[in-house]
Write a structure and sequence with these properties.
By secondary structure, this protein is α+β, with helices and mostly antiparallel strands. The chain contains five helices and eleven strands; from the N terminus they run ααβββββββααββββα. Helix 1 packs antiparallel against helix 2. It is elongated.
């Protein structure tokens, strides 16, 4: 803004001093720059509007697909399971509207659905979880403080010994203390549930859960109950 103001003043000075050619050239240049800026701004606005329009179209398309395709297919798959094994006793929905991202226990029929695979409860041999956690160290902040009380004493002593200059020297040698503080470390969990099933071809099922420790504990607890009841299946 300051440069624009100076430019305008300079143009005025040019016309006032009789430098009409230079003033005219500068005026034309300024007009060209302003027009170019307006055109560029309009182009940017058009691009932004086009981007927003495409985002809205994509959102509407996804909503339509969800309503007309994904949800009906999900409901059909879920209904087939319930018709086959009865009402679920316990279920975990890891991803909405995806039957292959659910764990469902059917206690009455001793079946368990694990992310797209159907097992008899007696085939669950073991269950545990791993945590590929990431630790981010807290930021360290250092603050230097001067002991003001000590500085006053030094200034007085310096003044007695060497006059005004001594006071400055005495103050400059005041004791300083640096205090460092560190924020708490941040831990980011990344859990994976590992289920061992009675299958030679595919004995291990890995289920990524993310940072949801509560869900991890509940799934592992349910699997342990199933394993503990194996002798009754």
């Amino acid at each position: 803004m300051v440069y624009v103001f100076l430019f305008i003043i300079f143009v005025i000075i040019c016309f006032a001093a009789g430098w009409y050619t230079l003033g005219t050239i500068l005026t034309v240049i300024a007009v060209i720059i302003i027009v170019a800026a307006i055109i560029s701004a309009n182009n940017d606005n058009k691009k932004d509007e086009e981007r927003k329009r495409k985002e809205q179209e994509l959102k509407a398309k996804k909503e339509e697909e969800l309503k007309n395709v994904i949800i009906p297919a999900y409901n059909n798959s879920r209904s087939e399971l319930i018709n086959k094994y009865g009402d679920p006793t316990k279920e975990f929905i890891l991803e909405k509207y995806d039957i292959n991202k659910e764990i469902i226990a059917f206690e009455k029929t001793n079946r368990v659905w694990i992310c797209g695979k159907d097992f008899p409860m007696g085939s669950i041999l073991g269950c545990k979880f791993s945590d590929n956690k990431k630790v981010v160290k807290g930021q360290i902040t250092s603050t230097t403080k001067t002991n003001n009380k000590n500085m006053v004493k030094r200034a007085v002593v310096g003044g007695v010994l060497t006059g005004g200059a001594g006071a400055v020297v005495g103050g400059a040698t005041a004791k300083k203390t640096t205090v460092s503080t560190q924020e708490n470390d941040k831990v980011y969990h990344d859990y994976t549930i590992i289920i061992n099933v009675d299958s030679l071809s595919d004995p291990i099922i890995r289920i990524p859960i993310g940072a949801d420790g509560k869900t991890v504990n509940e799934i592992v607890a349910m699997m342990n109950v199933i394993i503990n009841r194996r002798r009754t299946y």
